[in-house]
Amino acid sequence: MGDLRVLVTGATGYIGGRVTPRLLAAAYSVRVLVRSPDKLRDVPWAHDVEIFRGDLDDTDSLTAAFGDIDVVYYLVHSMGGGEAFTDAERRGAQHVVAAARSAGVSRIVYLGGLHPAGVELSAHLRSRTQVGRILIDSGIPTMALQAGVVIGSGSASFEMIRHLTNRLPVMTTPRWVNNRIQPIAVRDVLHYLVAAAEAPLPRSRTYDIGGPDVMGYGDMMRTYAQVAGLANRRILVLPVLTPRLAGLWIGLVTPIPSRLGRALIESLQNDAVMTEHGIDDVIAPPAGGLTPYREAVRLALGRIERGEVETTWANAAPVGAPSDPLPSDPVWAGEVVFTDERSKTCEADAQTLWQVVESIGGENGWYSFPLAWAVRGWLDRLVGGVGLSRGRRDARRLQTGDALDFWRVEKIERGALLRLRAEMRAPGGAWLEWRVRAAARGSRLDQRAIFFPRGIAGRAYWYALLPFHGVIFKGMVNNITGTAARRHQSAS
């Protein structure tokens, strides 16, 4: 190990954000290609890698990032839909191949989806298979790993199992609940990915990877319930439950948005079991063997309970496109921007006040009118939004790019500034911002809500909610400072 120069695409994603520090631990020189470098600002390994801003559709950025690279990790995958999504995935793969060929890259490592041969695949599995085939046929040595359901804290597949089982003692499911699945612990996926950089590769091909257990999806939920200490779950199979209806249901009762839930469900309509074991010829299993499903669940729940979730599916989305700046930027001059600004001082010191601000959201709540927030979250879920159920990655600390209920952390200057960008369904762009600073007697909190309306619907939306602002935003600034003051008094 060592000496090898590797490039990770998708380093802000669920798998990419975990494999990068492990490649560093293996003494590789690591470069990452990301659309939003700001999302790496608070990542512990950010100062140990070269960061290149770019996109798979930006061939110039690929040319720059691929220079002097030996191994490229292709870990970019969208969960969009339609022909535009498939075309974008194909173009991205073709651009990567062209850049890798031009730069003299010696190997590509890809992570795709596990699936049986000769059956109709879901749109997402078809697209991932197409990307793998483009890479394998490129003439560049390619190791394309294929994994099924990945079990780890924060993975979309695990979060769907966790929330369905936690919330529904009796559940109705489609027929695929009895399909055979070979889940794999995320730690084992990472083992194979890191080893793939230098593993023997007689020829470019796919390699199935999976854990030691093969079970039905229903059995996975029942086993989860046992590990989590829940009562036995009853599962009723309804053949008429379509992926679309199941996706909508998942969107209502779990943090997984309906579109992503539908994509996951469609991928489960076929068995996902290893059909060959060629991986054993080139990469040995992890020391101690592959992780059983029950143990993978236990490990994931332990990390969630301790607040040690390294990456999550929710944080894989981009912070915001460069074409979508804050309303305070000069390019918005002359446009209509609505704001609600409030300030309040308190006797607590700035550090204590900041701790309250940084803990906002998730199970900690929003410090004002809980019913209004709950109703807004449910309405958002009903129209296909993410709602409030994404919660927080960590109960105490935030970092740029974190999902926070139906917001995302756009900018954080620890101790001074927290800015959230709304990801709820709304006729316009919305932000919430808090600034904390020391004052003559304690500290001061400046709170600003910003809304940039789109058309008449956006203006009507703002004015319809205006009567509630006095309750919501005034209550928020009062309760944040009040909580900080009480903490200060109890510590005195």
UniProtKB/TrEMBL annotation:
Domain of life: Bacteria
MF GO annotations: aldehyde dehydrogenase (NAD+) activity
Domain NAD(P)-binding stretches: 10-115
GO annotation, cellular component aspect: cytoplasm
Alphabetized Gene3D superfamilies for the sequence: NAD(P)-binding Rossmann-like Domain
One Pfam family matching this protein: DUF2867
PANTHER family: NAD(P)-BINDING DOMAIN-CONTAINING PROTEIN-RELATED, PROTEIN YEEZ
Name by which UniProt lists this protein: Uncharacterized conserved protein YbjT, contains NAD(P)-binding and DUF2867 domains
Native source organism of the sequence: Rhodococcus tukisamuensis
Lineage: Bacteria, Bacillati, Actinomycetota, Actinomycetes, Mycobacteriales
